Amino acid sequence: MLENSSFEALSSRLCVETGESRILGRVRTRVIAALPCVTFPWDGCGGAVLRGANVFGPGVVAAPKHMKAGDLVSVFSDLEGRCTRGAAGFHGNKAFVGNGVAEMDRSGIFRTEEPARGVAVRMVEPLYRSPSFDGVLPGLVFLQNLPSVVVGHVLGPRPGEKILDMCAAPGGKTCHIASLMGDQGEVVALDRIRNKIDRIRQNAKTLGLRSVRACCFNSTQAAGDLVSVFSDLEGRCTRGAAGFHGNKAFVGNGVAEMDRSGIFRTEEPARGVAVRMVEPLYRSPSFDGVLPGLVFLQNLPSVVVGHVLGPRPGEKILDMCAAPGGKTCHIASLMGDQGEVVALDRIRNKIDRIRQNAKALGLHSVRACCFNSTQAVGPPQGAGDEAPGPPQEAGDEAPGPPFPPESFDRVLLDAPCSGLGQRPNMANTWSLKEIRSYPPLQRKLLQAAVGLLKKGGVLVYSTCTVTLGENEEQVAWALRTFPCLSLQPQGKTVDVHLLK
Asked: Where is the active site (predicted)?
């Protein structure tokens, strides 16, 4: 019947055509459809049908023009994958795999609005009478072919061992190994396709196996140890310890990029990535290196601040506490890079970072200066005083701070704060004394900001904390202390429907 065809070839596609061909009991059957591999994800459709499966709708590639549900049909495998989907017949290289009953009309199989779902042909006389185990004893039985079963026994896992299944999907061998270990120990299953990892987890859960840990990862890059990463919530772990049993929180799984000796070497601090996270607790994508020169990653509040400030082309803007430069660059881009954005920070390497970010984004209107912003107000400009120069490219020498009063059209003061509003945040070790140390500094910065703002200008004060003493009370103090200030409505800056 199969002539020179192999089972591997049968695993490719199934197909059929019209015509009287076989006798089923005393009933003549008509030959119908070509079906691709759809029934079992670990095997082709042809092989699945030979093992007792029915034929599902998405796999049908050819069927007679007038085929109706209830028709008796003969099913063939398209051995070379040349049958065109929707054909009424196929005369190419094919092999008979059995007879069945159509469960769908031709129109239902080849409908255009959405793919057909469910069984298209129920096999009543397969070539080999291999029973289907689909849905039989779920949670107790997992169907595998004999070689897959043998592999687990050859591996010989023992309770308490740590086992790696490098190309694990769909998880049959993984689960078999875990069961051979009595579910005692750990079986790490790797596959680089996310939905296959989900299938492994589902199968392990169905079988009640707790020792299986499935990770979405390319096994060719898995030379490092798989590790679980925790955060020390109270900062009590001693550096170099082999373990820690204090107050900690799980943040995800990763692959070690360094040996322990490389991390804790004494001659110099370790540099580079120690653990590459492959399964973080929250699936927040990394944008590192994505569209350099076009994209700069910011959280939503930082984005909102720039829009509230409302910079316009040609204006002179001051960002008083600017590092690492995200808001500075955003403001410059909102101005169309026309005007001047002066960025201040008192730490030299942070200023270098601002300049680097501005250069990467191609922004010429940013001028970064290493200076303490509380001292940024200079004497009034008079005879013989040199005013700050015109807009310069980032990093160029130009007259810098302190600046004469009323030098800027708009000022952004994103003040240093206790940071209690940062999310996500595992824990905070600030003492009350440390939290109370910020308001005096914030008031010094506010005083400088008001002094540098032109009449009719805009001052935006922002923090990333939630304390009244650093937010509402500071605004109230500024309004009392500087009668020239008036509180303005922020207005709508974010479409809340986009956040849903």
From this structure: 464
Domain harbouring 168, CATH code: 3.40.50.150
Let me know if residue 491 belongs to a domain.
Answer: no
pLDDT 10s digits, 82-106: 888 888 888 888 888 888 888 999 8
Buried b (16+ CB within 10 A) or exposed e, 405-421: bbbbbbbbbbbbbbbee
Determine the residue type at 328. Answer: T
In a domain, 140, yes or no: no
62 marked ligand binding residue: no
323 assigned to a ligand binding site: yes
Residue 138 in domain: no
Residue 275 within a domain: yes
Cα–Cα distance measured from residue 58 to residue 61, given in angstroms and rounded to the nearest whole number:
8
d(CA 282, CA 251): 8
Condensed to tens digits (0 to 9), the pLDDT of residues 445-460 reads 999 999 999 999 999 9
On whether 59 is known to bind a ligand per the annotation, the reply is no
| 242 and 308 fall within a common domain | no
129-172 per-position pLDDT tens digit: 777 666 777 777 777 878 889 999 999 999 999 999 999 988 99
pTM recorded for the entire structure: 0.52
Has 292 been labeled as part of a binding site? no
Provide the annotated active-site residues.
Answer: 464
